[in-house]
Amino acid sequence: MKKFFILLTLLIACQLCSTAQVGEHRSDFAVGVNGGYVLSNVSFVPKVSQTFHGGITGGLSYRYVCEKYFKSICSVYGEINYSQIGWKEEILDIEDKPVINSETGLEEQFQKTINYIQFPIMARLAWGRERKGFNFFFQVGPQFGVYLSESSKSNFELEKRNVADRVNQTIEQDTMMVENKFDYGIAGGLGLEYSHPKLGHFIVEGRYYYGLGNIYHDSKRDFFGRSNFGNIVVKLTYLFDIFRTKNDKIK
User: Fold this and answer.
1) CA angle 115, 87, 217 (to 5 degrees)
2) Is 75 exposed, middle or buried (0-12, 13-18, 19+ CB in 10 A)?
3) Exposure string (b/e) for 138-163, b if CB count within 10 Å is 16 or more?
4) Interatomic CA distance for residues 121 and 11, integer angstroms
């Protein structure tokens, strides 16, 4: 219940931003594309030792600027993205050395990639130039994800893995399929935008996503008590104006 309250609060904040008329009115709408790279992992309880899983993300972007309040440019920003996220296991022994598979003689490696369609919806505050030049921005809001598919990659047969030498004995996640197909959480980021009256808007951003939902069932009868995502995203975005406020004084 607490998780849904947090998301509801963020959604209300986005709605207020889109309807507020306290400052100088704006009605600027832009659409475009975005693409980037995601470093992800899953916070498991019981613990699963991991390094970051790398994947791509990209899709469509849209932004509606609703007002300028003092020096803050207020807008709502959203995306529809395809994203490859998951986890990559760090399989070590008690001496923090890689575990060797007795069948292959290689260091055991395992990773799972889960494909999602993601829908972040964020309230954005920016400071700087609107039409020509640079501005700096902060944005935060809820993100929702819909499961598409998943795949696993390993250099050993799962039934012949070296469990005896592992310092981390948790292995159930290697064979479990995603059980909760709907993901949700909070996304926030910082970025820099360059705008040009004719060329459009060029944006670079760093973002973090914290999942509030679990990918596996989490009742007392289930194996994992927690299995939520954490994602670090670096991306580039290009937007072009569909319509914008007619005001020669806007810089």
Assistant:
1) 75
2) buried
3) ebbbbbbbebeeeeeebebeeeebbe
4) 8
Residues 39-90 have pLDDT tens digits of 999 999 999 999 999 999 999 999 999 877 778 889 999 999 999 999 999 9
Quote the Cα angle for 34-35-40, to 5°: 125
pTM for the complete prediction?
0.87
At 34, list the tokens.
């975005």
Longest dimension (CA), the chain: 73
- The residue type at 113: T
| CA neighbor of 121 nearest in space, from 73, 61, 180, 71 | 61
> In 90-132, at which residue ranges do the beta strands (DSSP E only) sit?
110-128
Instruction: Report the distance separating Cα 50 and Cα 92, nearest Å.
Output: 10
- What does 163-182 look like in DSSP terms, one character per residue? -TT-S----GGGTPPP---E
Distance CA 203, CA 200 (A): 10
Gap between the Cα atoms of 25 and 166, Å rounded: 61
